[in-house]
Amino acid sequence: MGSGRKVLVAVFIASIAFGLWGAWRVFMPGSGDVRARLSASERERTSLREQLEQAQQQVATLGRSDQISRDANRDLQGTLAERDEEIAGLRADVAFYERLVGATAQRRGLTVHAIRMQPQNGTAWHFASTLTQNLNRGGSSAGRVTLSIEGTRNGRLQTLDWGDLRQQEDAPGVDYSFKYFQQVEGDVFLPEDFTPVRVTVRLTPRSGATVEESFTWAQATAEGNRENGGSAG
């Protein structure tokens, strides 16, 4: 083969290669296009992640707002219930005072209106007893209050007197002095193996006969048992 033919063959091969390279450049994306598309995809991905985080934050905010609303509603319901209970108590007080000092009130001498027993720490119990009288409206009643409690212990009936309840022999009673009513309070102690059944309130006035009134233990410890007249009157 002559040198001229070899040159022609080389030129032909080179022209084919150059044509293929040109076609690849035309139909295939360049490295700059790929980087641009990659950068766009990353920006889109970042934007979507930010939108997701914002949506999650909104959901969390709405959840907290809903919880706050529920808590506020629950607090309001509790406040309304307390006010209803307070109003009911005030109405009971008004009815109590009307029965005691109203124009149509029934005249009665020294009386134990009610007693309430509330458990304290250990074997201690706090008592609050309301005493009333409206027979002598110009005078006053004065004396001392003591309790005795009946119950069972080791399967046998037993009565604990004031000294037993106060854990003090010859313990003095609780003083009272009032015109119309007074709530007398104090503390007593019950043995651990003692089951109370009945409580008796005994009033020993400075003058006149002793007054006694008994209440079942269920009555004395009932949740709805409300004392009226928190101070002497």
CATH architecture of the largest domain: Sandwich
Distance between the termini: 143 Å
Count of DSSP H/I helices: 4
Topology-level CATH name of the largest domain: Immunoglobulin-like
Uncertain residue segments: none
CATH class of the largest domain: Mainly Beta
- Round the Cα radius of gyration to an integer and report it: 47 Å
For the biggest sheet, the summary is: 5 strands, antiparallel
- The name of the CATH superfamily of the largest domain reads Immunoglobulins
Q: Structural class, from helix and strand content?
A: alpha+beta
- Percent range for helical residues? 40-55%
Strand content is 25-35%
**What is the subunit arrangement here?**
single chain
What is the average per-residue confidence, as pLDDT, rounded to a whole number?
79
The sequence of SSEs as H and E is: HHEEEEHEEEEH
What is the β-strand count?
Answer: 8
**Silhouette:** elongated
InterPro entries: DUF6776
Keywords: Coiled coil
Coiled coil: 38-65
